Model the fold of this input.
Amino acid sequence: MRERPRGTAARIARAVVIGAVAAGGTAVAAPSASASHACGGTFDDYEICFFRLSGYSGGSRAFTSSDTTYANDNYTGTSTSLNNTISAYYNYHPSRWYTVCRYVSQEGCYFTIREYQRDSDLGNNTWTGGSVGMDNTYSSHVYNNA
Done:
């Protein structure tokens, strides 16, 4: 038998769900802002995937929407943060593009990744202005509809 969650947060969450159902609503769990699985499987369509190492290797992480900071995101199955560690990407989305940012809170957003665009080695690229390399410098992203 599964133990029920305890504590203030659990009681508040239960009260919100019970209140919503009592008011005639339906209790539906909200999806997370980002996918939480590794890339390279059957879920890649409609996602952007970031990879720890060049050549689409190392750890990976899939996203389906914007993310204001990679500081709280790890490569799937690891304790390594995405923040300033991304070396490759692949946008599997047919109609959405993403603007990647050098800083958290979606600041310094200077590079757009278009539909189905990919790059296996960010070490070959520089940010706008050409003086700072892109490898290991992404900190957040914004999604946009094409």
Observations:
- The helical segments are 8-22.
